[in-house]
Batch of 3 targets.
Target 1
Amino acid sequence: MINFEDFYNRPLWYQSEEARALFNDAQLQIIKETIDYIDNQLDFENDLSHIVFWSDYTLVNRLMHWLSLLNNAKGIDSLGYSPLVLATLWAFKNHKPITKQTQHQCDISISLIQEFLSFNIPIGDLDDAKLLLMNVFIWSERPDFVVSSLRKQMFTYSRTDTDNVFNKSYKGLINYLFVKTPLPNFLFPYLIDCSDAEYQLIINILDGKSLRKNMPSDFNLSKSENAILQADNINLPQVKDHILERFVLATRILKEFPDKHEILNIVIFRSRIFIDQIESFRNDLVFWKSVFRFLVINAEEFGYLNTMSHYIDYFEWQRYFSEEPLKYTLKGRTFKSVNRIVGHYHYRYGHMTTYIKYKWKPLPIEKWFSMDETFTYAIEEITDGKRLLDESKALGHCVFTYGESCNNGFVHIFSLSKIRKAIKKSFITIEVRGNLITQIAGKNNQAPSQYVIDLIEEWGAVNSLSIR
């Protein structure tokens, strides 16, 4: 068990001899003034040490300048200070535009953030702080883009309870600040994960330039693909890289049936290859087009769309993890023949002995309870192969086949149980990827009731998870 008194009284890195050799007295004082008000000191220390060890001295000095000015602006109870400091370290650590700004751009950015802190505007989480910073970087680089006043919104937020941009998702901030006319905004929600090239593409889009003409030449986007991208119907799963390429690949699959974007979104959310091995997905795009075509043509046979997930699991297993990788094809296969063999697959691979031996690291989410007049409900993570197999057998679905992904940390599986008179019974399985609840399955893959969804949403809200 963690001794929290020892944890909070532990020596801090910036107090070590190593840190004293890297910082001068003024810089150490800035760090001390910062860390005293940081909610997550460990993340601050880890990011700070990473920047110091892997950056040149000029960049470290720039970071110290930022921290000093944030300290001067925070006020004693500033609600946005801690996440903005952590977001600033994230921006330096990940070489965001903050590391390349001119002095004038830096002054604009800091001035805006100082004003934000002075109005004591709360920030929901670290991602919101990152999105705010990225918008500020665009503003500092191209102030001529700004069509709406952020300062006015700060002022009204601090004095009224009326509708305000800061009462909404920070993902929509770019549309409020910069967008004059309807633009393809598929990249905007992924602003914090964009590469330098993708960030520059966003700048060009906001500048009114043609999407097709400003795409990297190796993508060679056609007019029809451009139209699909601008329709903004593709939702990426929780990914952190190759954002633009993933959109383009998904667009090329969707092109054959442009109105079937719901099925396409299931394919890319479900595909472990799309999420974890984008190069393999790119090189095998013809196969994935055939998967999408099969699902669309046989859509009425599935009953409800979520059932398709288990077929995608099977296709992916046969294509990449069988004894003859890249040999499996859907050519000439009917829904009946595939449906029959998918059942055998779930039985056969649902009992792989290697998975039973697996144990993996859980998410930092505590066991959760809720009660009504009949039952106590509990949600807890499954962290070993044997327990995963028990869940699969009890509920008659294929969750055990996810053992490899769980062991590699790509997927986390939680079990929702009913408890009555000390008897506990699993009845819902929950799949989590990143900070998204990507699947909820009952016995024999039945869809959950609205009551169950409400329970899971309540649990998700407590743990910063949202349902896809």
Target 2
Amino acid sequence: MEKIAKSTSWNNIPIDKPIQLKISLKFNDEQFSKLIKGLIPREMEDKWFIYFENDWLYFHRSWTGFGVYKALLIKEQDSYYIKYFWAERNQEKYKNQDEKVDVETFSFLIARGLLEEDVDKIHFNRNINSDEDIIKGWSNFGNLL
């Protein structure tokens, strides 16, 4: 039986300087049931700890426990939506300041890390065009790649 991630499953420190970013993601019931299981790292190279609590998905780096993203899952009729997510902007906890990178990373974590689907299935196009992009991708996503 697959263990469901909870806030007590791994070290986690909340986001302290959040910025709100707009996104438009839609999920069906099957996808929602995968999202709420979260992700508990098996090893530090997994890079991410993700859990669901009180309608929120929380994304933390596995090494530090620092919160990087959080998103409210909203139920409307027969679907679930993420319309906004929040990203850390405390430079001591998270160096990235590029909103496009945040949208790309957040979408990838949901698609590959939680849903185990191609990123394009959640209507997001992510292109890896160079060796530098591959190295950066592994740095951000670890074994999820």
Target 3
Amino acid sequence: MSLSANPKSFAYPVLVADIGGTNARFALVDNTDAPTRMCGKTATADHPDISSAIRTAVFPETDIKPRTAIIAVAGPVTGDIIPLTNAAWVIEPLKMIAGLGLEEVIVLNDFEAQALALPGYGGGDIEQVGTGTARQASAKFVLGPGTGLGAAAMIYASETWVPVPGEGGHVELGPVTPEDFELWPHIERYHGRVGAEQLLSGTGLPRLARAVTSYMKAERQFDTPASITMAADDNDPVAVKILEVFARGLGRVAGDFALTVLARGGVYLTGGITPRITRFLTDGGFRAAFEAKAPHEALMAKIPTFIVRHPDPALEGLASFARAPDAFAVDMQGRQWVGAASVA
């Protein structure tokens, strides 16, 4: 059975799960005051489905089996059968309830989970890049260059945090600087356009590399993101230029989103690419592109940007929701399943 009302509490323990194309990560929240208890990471390829992975990775770690599961997946949640974008698993909440003895299953978008983590960050969870001070109870934005370019907003309204996932990674990316205008003719178009994800992601980096290599009239072949970051670590001039352009483009897109939602609570960078290019995010180019939004440069200088250092941001976001669901306005329509016993 699928419900739509936002719950005021969950049946504990709550299992939270971040399901990626390669790995599945699990943690438990034992009650409203309990810390997040990590309990397993496993390769999706090692299991036929999520229930098998939970039995293997989670059940041996707890004496009390979870009663609720909150799961983050990459892609839309459109029905009772949810195929994963980059893995062979199919999530079937009703089968999970029957097979694992759960009372309730909720499935959210992965960047919605990332957004849920934003209000709780502090200390070593984040590293600030550039100027600005985060305002309390103000809109935030999370942007994550990984395999793709994920994006989500966290809006504060009526004393409630409202996560807003979307497909922001597919906005247009155009030239601004003189170098950009020389570089852009070398970029391969996808269906006639240059979208942000086409360059600012793990899948996009090799495309950007081909464009920069052609623009610089160099002889290089960078087929993977790792080959680019490793060459940049060795100060290869072409690889360094690729990541400078990448960071500048990321700053520009981050600034656009900051203006779109007036993210006075900050813009936060996550994703698998981010920790590998830290020096290109902190050398000034990223922040300069972020702030270059005439006539609003003064406003942009006040909006902070952060690198997320938390090792499991999506899990922490789901755990925050599990502990205090009434603090968030999460759309449950078509994304919440409960067993017959729970309804009774």
